[in-house]
Specification:
The structure is a homodimer. Chain A is α+β, with helices and mostly antiparallel strands. The first copy, chain A, has six helices and five strands; from the N terminus they run H-H-H-H-E-E-H-H-E-E-E. The longest helix of chain A has 14 residues. Chain B binds a DNA duplex (30 and 30 nucleotides) through helix 3 and helix 4.
Chain lengths: ~150, ~150
DNA sequence: GGCTATAGTTCTAAAATGGAACTGTCAAAC
DNA sequence: GTTTGACAGTTCCATTTTAGAACTATAGCC
């Protein structure tokens, strides 16, 4: 597999995997959603090597998920902020958190609770159909080849 | 980072990442949701090395995401089927597909279209609040430390 | 016996990662 | 005006993972 062209495969999952499909990137994104923005902060909270952190941040900037913004002119210092494209990764992160809550929990209960500011309640994220609003299940979905692919699949 | 104990971290995202947080595993799961079940079928559609495929399938079985079921007694042959725990990964996969459709598309259009059997329409997956049903956005969510973690975060 | 199909395992070279030390810039403290 | 410390990286080398290909094993079919 040529990972460097995975983002050009005729498959939206592959393209997403090309960007966020590794362990460190997902953990870095978690920190971003918890409002972490600076190199040292990522490094100390994740215990990631500085080299890899530098690589991953560059990659996320390159793909337009983070924006590198100066917060100090002299010395030059930057912080990493989620773009709209990055913020749109939220459902992926939340889906993973919810699966972990459901299937990987221990006797101590959930590590984090999420409160919806709009309605004020503690909630779980639920994936629904954009058309009818019903909860989605794999077995109720039929897959067709779209215009971006010739042959039929699945 | 000790990746072998990532599934015991007091963070549901980490625990999920421990299981599905690598490129091959996510691609293998895509194939599972497209009804692929056999070793040779995974291998030829993904072009993954047989060694890694073997490793990843074992890991998915160990975590209870796939079940290894004999479909032939002599010679012993097995196929890999998603358990309920595995089927519950569907929102993660769909969230990734949707993000790819939205942000990584090219001029040819979507590779795949999804039809909801329940309502009959082509749809997008949308993540909503389990309590009020509103669409979720990162900025409308407040995070609290839960019982599974002592100190407050974010 | 020879051929094919399936599901792996083994081997070696190449690539990625971990861990630690090093670089460079500037502000504030002494 | 020299030292200390914070920050944002880069460099180096040992270890671990992965890629790619060949090999093993079982059994059905001709």
């Amino acid at each position: 597999m040529k990972w460097d062209t995975l983002d050009e495969e005729p498959c939206s999952l592959s393209r997403t995997v090309a960007v966020v499909g590794d362990r460190w990137t997902l953990l870095i994104l978690r920190e971003c959603f918890l409002r972490v923005r600076r190199f040292e902060a990522f490094q100390s909270s994740l215990q990631i090597t500085r080299h890899l952190l530098s690589e991953r941040l560059k990659k996320l900037v390159r793909f337009g998920i983070l924006r590198r913004i100066p917060y100090s002119e002299a010395p030059k210092r930057y912080e990493y902020i989620l773009t709209q494209k990055g913020l749109d990764l939220y459902p992926i992160i939340m889906a993973m958190v919810h699966w972990g809550d459901t299937h990987m929990g221990d006797e101590r209960g959930r590590p984090l609770l999420h409160q919806h500011k709009t309605c004020g309640k503690l909630f779980d994220p639920v994936m629904v159909c954009s058309e009818c609003g019903e909860v989605l299940h794999a077995k109720q979905v039929h897959v067709h080849a779209g215009p971006g692919r010739e042959e039929a699949v699945g």
